[in-house]
Write a structure and sequence with these properties.
Layout: H1 2-16, E1 30-36, H2 55-62, E2 65-67, H3 77-86, H4 90-93, H5 109-115, E3 119-125, E4 137-141, E5 151-154, E6 157-160, H6 165-179, E7 186-191, H7 203-209, H8 229-233, H9 238-241, H10 252-258, H11 267-276, H12 280-300, H13 306-341, E8 348-354, H14 373-376, E9 380-383, E10 392-394, H15 403-411, H16 425-428, E11 438-443, E12 455-460, E13 463-468, E14 474-479, H17 497-513, H18 518-533
Parallel strand pairs: 1-7, 1-8, 2-10, 3-4, 3-7
Antiparallel strand pairs: 2-9, 4-5, 5-6, 8-9, 11-12, 12-13, 13-14
Helix pairs in contact: 6-13, 7-13
This protein binds 2-deoxy-6-O-sulfo-2-(sulfoamino)-alpha-D-glucopyranose and calcium ion (CA).
């Protein structure tokens, strides 16, 4: 009897403190984690590249912090999402590439938040099979999803929703926020599909962006001298490897008329599939803008040199890519407004990031995968007025590996000892200078589209060491201070002998620390080869 009374007393005391059974307090911070797909930091205006304007995303950094060297551990969509959820490297969580199965039964940070009394939701692109675990609500795109009139899988049930994917994703996020149980803290993962290939913008933005001209990067005409086999054999060059119909939006009939062969075998099908999802009103609006582009190209193509074509294709790429980002930015603004209007801004951690970086013409490329800077790094902005001073800039080497432990730390939940990332809560609050001095990276999806060879490596403040393996055995070393564009591999330069030895030692230490090995590389290679042969 005494024990029962004691329990009743404890329960009453806990509820008086605003704490529910599992431990989360009503005052625990909310989390809004916004992640887009393939959004390079060069296309967030807060990073200062001058390509486009993203005032709403920038607002997060203005009122909070901007990370100048945030990186991912594996620059590919589904692996990056698995790292976000688990706080573990790909070779530990098992999702090493877009092909391998992800095991939802393993632990993840939303499950832990949920257990502690948070309400959790995931909206938008997740790119992994199976019902997402750890969420009270999920509304996700199947696989890559579609830009126009997309299907969504809402709590396991598929339905098509009319409209433009970015706007729909924002609406689903806002609707969930409004309808949530307001007595509990919440964690919302709001994941945009844009600006993923094939870059179809919303009507209100393609009308504007297709008229714009963008600054070219210095290395657009890179000839890959000074690099190894991997950069030379990758298939991500804007001039050689982009689809004419699928990417540039040249009509299949016009390709035939001009004698332009498809780049990839699904070049024309990609175009037909994407535009085929539009209704007649959407299609008419599209044609009104893209028909004149086709007519202009038809006139110019016969006299264009390869160089002219590269200039033209770069502009076409940027118009559509940056056009899709405009709606992403607008959605961020709507969510920030919602938090303001509902008095939630003060107690909500807002993050903006991407699943990886992207090449916007640097080295002549599009896509990602490589450990070179543009795809290794990713935008990262965070606002939490209670702890982060406006205008903070963090240059330390944080990774997407750190999100899970950071969120648990903010929520006051113990971080499981097998999570491999570090909480950056103190770092961003200016309460510690203690941080890692090197990051570890792995990439596996080869042979595959874009043909980026398997590699792993480390990056420190100044240097980067990479090993490309499987069908080659090549090392690359870059001095990022002297050579920020990574144009000269100095691995065999005697001047760098000491640096090289030190970097090798550090790499060996990190591989050991994170529990990676040649045996892992071999295991994942064998798995991959058997899966793609099926
Ligand atoms: C598609 C794209 C690739 C892209 C992968 C993976 N080709 O295959 O360019 O690298 O997705 O992207 S496409 O012709 O189908 O558009 S990821 O972000 O999902 O990893
Ligand atoms: Ca991606």
């Amino acid at each position: 009897m005494k024990q029962v009374l004691l329990l009743l007393f404890v329960a009453a005391a806990l509820s008086a403190m605003g704490q529910n059974k599992a431990g989360a307090k009503t005052s625990s911070p909310n989390i809004v984690y916004i992640m887009s797909d393939d959004h390079g930091y060069q296309a967030v205006s807060a990073y200062g590249y001058g390509l486009n304007n993203t005032p709403n995303i920038d607002r997060i950094a203005k009122e909070g912090a901007l990370f100048t060297r945030a990186t991912v551990t594996n620059s590919l969509c589904a692996p990056s999402r698995a790292v976000l959820l688990t706080g573990k490297h790909s070779f530990i969580n098992g999702k090493v590439d877009n092909v391998t199965h992800f095991d939802w039964n393993q632990n993840n940070f939303p499950k832990l938040l949920q257990k502690a009394g948070y309400q959790t939701a995931m909206v938008g692109k997740i790119h992994m099979d199976g019902l997402p675990q750890g969420f009270d609500y999920s509304a996700v795109l199947p696989d890559q999803g579609d830009y126009y009139n997309p299907d969504f899988i809402i709590n396991g049930n598929k339905q098509q929703i009319h409209g433009y994917v970015t706007d729909i994703t924002t609406n689903l996020a806002l609707t969930w926020l409004e309808g949530r149980d307001k007595s509990k803290p919440f964690c919302l993962l709001y994941h945009q599909k844009a600006p993923h290939r094939e870059w179809l913008a919303a009507e209100r933005y393609y009308k504007v962006y297709t008229k714009m001209t963008f600054k070219e990067p210095e290395t657009l005409f890179d000839d890959y001298k000074g690099r190894g086999t991997a950069a030379k054999s990758a298939e991500m060059n804007i001039l050689k490897d982009m689809n004419w119909a699928g990417d540039d939006k040249i009509k299949p009939e016009l390709m035939d008329e001009l004698g332009i062969p498809p780049t990839l075998k699904w070049d024309k099908d990609a175009y037909k599939r994407n535009l085929g999802r539009m209704d007649s009103v959407q299609r008419a609006a599209w044609d009104a803008v893209y028909d004149p582009i086709n007519e202009d190209f038809k006139k110019r193509y016969p006299t264009m040199s390869k160089e002219d074509l590269m200039h033209w294709r770069y502009q076409r790429y940027m118009q559509d890519y940056l056009g899709t980002i405009a709606a992403v930015d607008e959605g961020v603004g709507e969510v920030l407004d919602y938090l303001d209007k509902n008095g939630l801004a003060e107690n909500t951690i807002v993050i903006y990031t991407s699943d990886q970086g992207f090449y916007l013409g640097e080295h002549g490329w599009f896509d990602k995968r490589f450990m070179y800077e543009e795809s290794l790094r990713t935008p990262l902005l965070i606002r939490y007025p209670k702890e982060i001073k406006p205008g903070t800039r963090i240059n330390d080497l944080v990774q997407n590996l750190d999100f899970a432990p950071t969120f648990l730390d903010y929520a006051g939940i113990d971080i499981p000892s097998d999570m491999q990332g570090m909480s950056f809560r103190k770092l961003v609050a200016g309460k510690t200078n203690h941080w890692r001095d090197a990051i570890y990276y792995t990439y596996y999806e080869y042979p595959s589209i874009h043909m980026v060879k398997r590699h792993y490596g480390i990056r420190t403040d100044r240097y980067k060491l990479m090993h490309f393996y499987y069908d080659i055995d090549e090392w690359e070393l870059y001095d990022l201070q002297k050579d920020p564009h990574e144009m000269h591999n100095v691995y065999n330069d005697p001047v760098y002998k000491k640096v090289r030895d030190e970097m090798h030692q550090k790499l060996a230490m990190l591989r050991k620390k994170y529990k990676d090995s040649d045996a892992n590389d071999q295991k994942f290679l064998n798995n991959y080869l058997s899966q793609i042969q099926k």
